[in-house]
Write a structure and sequence with these properties.
Oligomer: single chain
Structural class: alpha+beta
Number of strands: 2
Distance between the termini: 37 Å
Strand order of the largest sheet: 1-2
Shape: flat
């Protein structure tokens, strides 16, 4: 089985697991239980080497927060290099465009 197939199967399994959790969004205080979903994702991330924490104003309505550190500029796709002296419509050369946040941002 290829890495792509394994990743596809893993994504499907995580989606199935999340769908099975009762996270009904009730409007009454103390109901909703989104924390089940957040705790599942926190555990999933931990098994894959990513530290995460649960943050909540209400115990049953937690969010999962994780940070994956990068180094320098982060890009989603490789772009071919452009010559440093290239100009567009008479404008001076510009730094490479990564598509803007969240795809590219300086640290």
């Amino acid at each position: 089985m290829s890495d792509e197939s394994r990743l596809h199967d893993e994504v499907i399994q995580v989606a199935r697991d999340l769908i099975r959790l009762d996270t009904t969004n009730a409007r009454e205080p103390g109901l909703g239980n989104e924390t089940l979903c957040a705790a599942y994702l926190q555990d999933y991330l931990a098994r894959n080497g990513v530290e995460a924490e649960l943050v909540a104003r209400e115990p049953d309505r937690a969010n999962v927060v994780a940070r994956i550190p990068g180094s320098g500029f982060e890009t989603v796709a490789e772009r071919p290099p452009q010559p440093p002296d290239s100009t567009v419509a008479g404008r001076p050369p510009q730094p490479p465009d990564c598509g803007g946040p969240p795809r590219c941002r300086p640290r």
